[in-house]
Amino acid sequence: MQIPSLSLVDTIDSSTGVLVVPVRGGETPALLSGDNLGLTPERLSALGVTGKAGSTQRILVAAGDAERPALLVGLGEERTLEALRRAAGAAARALKTEAGLVVLVDDASADELEALALGAALGAHAFDRYRSTPKDEEPTPAERTVALVGAGQEAQRAIERAQVLAEAVALARDLGNTPANDLVPEDVAQLAADVVAELPVEIDVWDEQRLLDEACGGLIGVGQGSANPPRLVHLEYAPEGAKRHIALVGKGITFDTGGISLKPAASMLGMKYDMSGAGSVIATVVAAARLGLPVRLSGYCCLAENMPSSTALKPDDVLVLRGGTSVEVTNTDAEGRLVLADGLVLASEAKPDLIIDIATLTGAQVVALGNRTTGVMGNDDAQTAAIVAAGERTGETMWAMPIPEELEERLESNVADLVNSKPGDRSAGMLFAAAFLERFVGEDADGAPIPWIHLDIAGPSENGGGAYGYTPKGATGVPVRTLVELLSQDA
Ligand code: BES
Ligand code: ZN
Ligand code: ZN
Q: How far, in Å, are 10, 19, 197 from residue 70 at the CA level?
C-alpha cells in the first residue's frame, strides 16, 4: 500500500517540509492561516492567487528572518470538509516530488484535521507496483510524510482515523487496479486472508467443491467457463456489545469478458475493475475492525471470472441459485446479479438488521448518473436516505433511484422462475437489475423483508478521466468511506 504516514505536530519548523496553505476564493482571496506569512492581499493578487478550487501556486513565504517554500492551494468559496479534503489532495499531487509536507490551517476542528489528513493521504496514493523504473528522485508515496498542525487528544484521534481510512481506501484501490492476470478469485481470497490475519476478523473461504455442496448455482455457473475457479469469501467481525448486525455483499468478478455473450473490445477494457464491490467489502471490514466500531459485520465476496469457453455458461441455460430460485440466463454478461444472488441469500440466512450490496453492476448506471454518482436502490426508504446522507458527508455522491413495480413482470421467464436480463430492451437497466436482486433478499424472524440497500458503482468505482482533488486516475475506492461513515453512526 502506497500512502504517506500522517502525524500531528504542534509547531512547524523547517524540517517538516513544504508548507501547504489553503486559500479561500471569492472577491478577496484569504489564507486559512491566521499568520498571513507576509502575504498581503496586494501580494496575493499580484501572484494571481484566486483560491479557485484545486488551483495551486508554489511560492516562498517569510519565516522569521528566512524564507521557506510553500504551496498555496485553492479551496473554492466554502470551507467545507469536502473542500478541505480536495484541496489537501490537490496539494499532495502538486507536491509529489517532495518527501514532506505540512498543512497549516488555523483553528481547524478535529473533523477538519481528519479531512485534511485524509485528503492529503488519498491524493498522494499511487499504484506503482508495475513500474519497472522508479521515477527519478521522486519519493514513493510510502516514503512521504504529511504533518498537520494541531494539538490535543481529539486531534490525535482524528489523524489516526484518517490513517486507517486512507489505508482502507488504498487497499480497495489497489485491488481494483491490479490486472486480472495477477488477481483471480483465489488471489482475492488469499489477499483477504492476509489483510485480516492480525485483526479480530474470522475468514472462511469456500472453494468450488464447497460452492457446489452449498448449492451456490450463480457462482458455479458464472465461474464454470474459467480455468480460475470461483470462490466465496465470508468475513465475520463480531465485537462484543455490537449494536447492529450489518451484512455486506460484494460483486467480485475479477474479469468480465461478458462470457459467451461476449463484450465488444472497447467495452471490455476496464473490466478488471468488476471486482470493486468485493474489494470495498474487504476494505470496509478491515477499517471497521481497526477502528473497533461496535457493529457486527458479515462480509460476503462473490468471486468469479466471467470467461467464454467450451465449459462456459450459455444463453438459454438455466441455473438454480442458492435457496432454489431458478434463473434463465438470457445474457451471460448479466453475470454480476447471478453471483450476488447467491451472496444475498447467504447473507439473509444470517438474518442481519441490514444488507448492503455493492456492485459494478450495470452500464445503465453510468448512462443514468455518470461517473461520480453511485445509484442507490433498496426496499427501505429510511436506510436509503441514511446512506445518501452519509455519502454527502464523505463526498462520495449517491443518488436514490426507484425500483418501479412494472419491472416485475419483465422478470418472468417461460422456462424458469426468472430471467437475468430483458433482451433487446435497454430501458431502466440499472433498475431492472435491482428488481432482480430484490427477489433474493430474505425475511426477518417476523416474516418482513430484511432492510436492504443496493449500490451500483459501475461508474464511480473508476476514474477514467484526469486526477482531481484526492482522486487519482483508475480505481477510486468508492464507497468504502461512506460505508465506514454509516457504520460509525452506531458508535
Ligand atoms: N460489469 C458490467 C457492468 C459495467 C459496465 C461496469 C460498464 C462498469 C462499466 C456488467 O456485468 C454488465 O456487463 N452488465 C450488462 C448487463 C446487460 C447485459 C443486461 C450491461 O450493463 O450492459
Ligand atoms: Zn457483465
Ligand atoms: Zn460485470
A: 18, 4, 41
Ligand 1 pocket, 228 CB below 6 A? no
Contacts of 43 (CB under 8 A, 6+ apart): none
Whole-angstrom distance, CA of residue 8 vs CA of residue 148:
5
**From the alpha carbon of 361, which atom of ligand 1 is closest?**
3
Indicate if ligand 1 lies below 6 Å from the C-beta of 421. yes
pLDDT in tens, 381-394: 999 999 999 999 99
The CA distance from 447 to 286, in Å, is 32
Mean pLDDT value across residues 85-113: 96
- For residue 332, how far is its CA from the centre of ligand 1 (angstroms)? 10
Annotated active-site residue in 144, 231, 337, 439: 337
Q: Is the peptide bond before 479 cis (omega within 30 degrees of 0)?
A: yes
Beta carbon of 277 within 6 Å of any ligand 1 atom? no
Is residue 251 among the annotated active site residues?
no
- pTM exceeding the 0.90 threshold for the entire prediction: yes
Q: Where are the beta strands (DSSP E) in 314-422?
A: 318-320, 326-328, 354-359, 374-378, 398-400, 418-419
**Pocket of ligand 1 contains residue 364 by CB under 6 Å:** yes
CA of 89: how far to CAs of 116, 158, 253, in Å? 8, 17, 30
Note residues around ion ligand 2 (Cβ under 5 angstroms): 256, 333, 335
| Cα(457) to centroid(ligand 2), Å | 14
CB atoms within 10 A of CB 315: 16
Does 394 contact ligand 1 (Cβ within 6 A)?
A: no
**Residues 250, 277: Cα–Cα separation, whole Å:** 4
DSSP, collapsed to helix, strand or coil, labels residue 107 as coil
Q: What is the DSSP letter of 178?
A: S
CB-ligand 1 contact for 276 (6 Å cutoff): no
Distance 430 CA to ligand 1 centre (A): 9
In contact, 216 and 209? CB cutoff 8 Å: no
DSSP code, position 447: S
Ligand 3 centre distance from Cα of residue 247 (Å) = 21
Q: What are phi and psi of 264, to 5 degrees?
A: -65, 155
pLDDT in tens, 117-166: 999 999 999 999 998 877 777 899 999 999 999 999 999 999 999 999 99
Q: How far is residue 25's CA from residue 76's CA, in Å, rounded to a whole number?
A: 5
